[in-house]
């Protein structure tokens, strides 16, 4: 009975099909581990077996104190890396014994790969973050907005233009009996009810 289990485990470790696996690594060391793994794969002549190493990141958009659009990359799964590989004893050994790799997720006697569906969901999150890099502006040219600050607080004016890159909006303000274009920060106006 025990001999059968050993044969089954050996078969699973010697999988010649390319599959995706998850590594648990020390958080904050993901980029270092990724570089270490790439180097070890080359040194051990495993480039034909380990064909992809991935540290998925998403773009996060924010606005700086100077009201400029800032794009930062953020790890989608801190503390985890992904790799696509065939699996055998040598590959399993090299990956498990890379510095700062804690374990191959779900690996007890053998590594269990991600399903294609799980991987595709992860990649959809990455793609969605790339597609949504624009700062969402709640108003457009022609909208009526309410001024929330300055001497004009509480007055309503029409939007002439919007600059989402600089976080500015130009409104038509009546000043000394004339309509005058005035540029203000987006956070000082809101859609009028």
- Radius of gyration, CA atoms, in whole angstroms: 27 Å
| Parts with pLDDT < 50 across at least 5 consecutive residues | none
Class based on secondary structure composition and strand pairing = alpha+beta
Q: Would you list the SSEs in sequence order as H and E? A: HEHEEEEHEHEEEEE
Distance between the termini: 76 Å
What is the CATH top level name of the largest domain? Alpha Beta
Largest sheet: 5 strands, antiparallel
Could you describe the 3D structure shown?
The protein has 193 residues and is of the alpha+beta class. It has two domains: 130 residues, Alpha-Beta Plaits (2-Layer Sandwich), CATH 3.30.70.940; 48 residues, SH3 type barrels (Roll). Helices cover 26% and strands 38% of the residues. The chain has a five-stranded antiparallel beta sheet, with no helix packed on it. The protein is rod-shaped and about 85 Å long. The mean pLDDT is 80.
Features:
26% helix, single chain, Alpha-Beta Plaits, SH3 type barrels, 193 residues, 4-stranded antiparallel beta sheet, alpha+beta, 5-stranded antiparallel beta sheet
Helices and strands in order:
Layout (H helix, E strand, L loop, with lengths): L1 H12 L1 E11 L4 H14 L6 E5 L2 E7 L5 E7 L4 E8 L1 H8 L4 E4 L11 H16 L12 E4 L8 E8 L4 E8 L2 E8 L3 E3 L2
Antiparallel strand pairs: 1-5, 1-6, 2-5, 3-4, 7-8, 7-11, 8-9, 9-10
Q: Can you describe this structure in just a few lines?
A:
This protein has 193 residues and is of the alpha+beta class. It is built from four helices and eleven strands, in the order αβαββββαβαβββββ.
């Amino acid at each position: 009975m025990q001999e059968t289990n050993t044969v089954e485990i050996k078969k699973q470790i010697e999988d010649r099909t390319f599959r995706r696996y998850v590594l648990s690594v020390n958080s904050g060391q993901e980029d270092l581990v990724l570089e270490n793994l790439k180097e070890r794969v080359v040194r051990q002549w495993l480039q034909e077996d380990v064909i992809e190493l991935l540290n998925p990141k998403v773009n996060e958009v924010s606005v700086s104190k100077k009201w400029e659009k800032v794009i930062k990359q953020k790890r989608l799964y801190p503390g985890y890396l992904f790799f696509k590989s065939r699996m055998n004893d040598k590959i399993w050994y090299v990956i498990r014994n890379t510095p700062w790799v804690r374990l191959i997720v779900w690996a007890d006697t053998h590594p269990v790969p991600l399903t294609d569906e799980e991987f595709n969901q992860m990649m959809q999150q990455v793609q969605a973050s790339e597609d949504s890099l624009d700062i969402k502006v709640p108003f457009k040219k022609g909208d009526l907005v309410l001024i929330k600050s300055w001497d004009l607080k509480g007055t309503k004016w029409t939007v002439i233009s919007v600059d989402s890159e600089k976080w500015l909006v130009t409104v038509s303000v009546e000043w000394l009996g004339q309509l005058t274009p005035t540029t203000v920060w987006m956070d000082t106006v809101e859609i009028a009810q």
